[in-house]
Predict the 3D structure of the following.
Amino acid sequence: MISAMSPLFPSCTSPLRQALPELPPAHSTDHHPAQATPPRRPLLRYQVLPFPNLMLRAPETPYGHETAMPVMSADDTQATDFDGHWKDALEALLAPCVALFWPRLHAAIDWSCPPDFLDKELRALAPGRRRYRRYLDKLVRVRLRSGAPALMLLHLEIQQRLASHFARRMYTYFARLQETFPDSLILQFAIVTRSPRQTSYLHYHYAPQGYAQEGQDFLSLSYRVPVVHLQDWAGREQALLALAPDNPFALVVLAELAAARRSTPQTLLKEKKQLVRQLYQYGWQARRIRQLFLFIDGILALPPELDDDFWQSLASFEEERNMAYISSVERIGIRKGLQQGLKQGRNEGMAGLLRALLETRFGPLSDADLARLQQADQTRLHRWAQRLLEAQTLEHVWH
């Protein structure tokens, strides 16, 4: 039997293992239901990475070992570009994200070397994925404090309930990634945003049907990877607020929890105002405030009549503090123009407005860029307009 355990939990030794900092043992709460089993022969463990004791923060309650994949519920039809907002948040706040959920892993990475997001390489692993998907995958090259490079493969699911193919998809990514980069260290893990907690690990098991009995000489495969459930933080909002001054990703989690509650529009307006005002309490630079605001604004979308209320409140709040980080004339003008285009249902007008803004900022667009604008839908145009507010280059708008 080959056991392909999670890359975060190997026990072999190597020169890299010796170069890594010594980490204290961590306790795992992975739970397996008790069952009577005959004595087993020793397993041949195919362990991919030399990262002993590099555990996740243990959940507070035990879990089962169900294979899990979030899927879209029948009423989950909101057109908000959740994967786009999460993509931008993870790229801007990867280090705080890792520090919040995997502090030992964060300590093992040399963050003075900027992470390299390998979007092109990731697309080659999974070509032809559908638009408006309710999941997000990120592949990042990082450098460890030992000097060794590593590939970090992060899967994020934005769903309401769990089904049965997520673990297999993750295993497929891992297998393809290992085939493409056979000599690379691979760190793989998952974040599930909206499902109730069920498992601390995702499992994928394979064996030929009818031939998996003990003593049979047939291949079997067991794979598991750690998973973080953001709903574990529900009811612990004060703890997240206490973490926020040192870790801005805590506010990302708070915004996600607010979105998952599906409150009334008036309650959502109140929560959004409170979250945005928190951004000004910690002495952060304007760029960090805007990065977090774009996520909060995108994931906590309001009806148009309440959106006007929100922006008026924000403008007054910033004026009182002489901190016009968000509610500038330029930003409100862009937003109003996009909202008008959305109301009228005309992509053409939105694309024309965005083209004018892009050319003012970056100069004439190429034919390929113009075609990209004309073919984009409203959600994508809106996301590009949001990125324009912070983008340093045209490529930063598109990707």
Notes: The beta strands are 2-4, 44-46, 69-71, 116-117, 135-143, 149-157, 161-163, 185-192, 201-206, 221-229. The two ends are 42 Å apart (CA to CA). The chain has 16 helices and ten strands. Residues 7-14+44-57+80-208+216-233 form one domain.
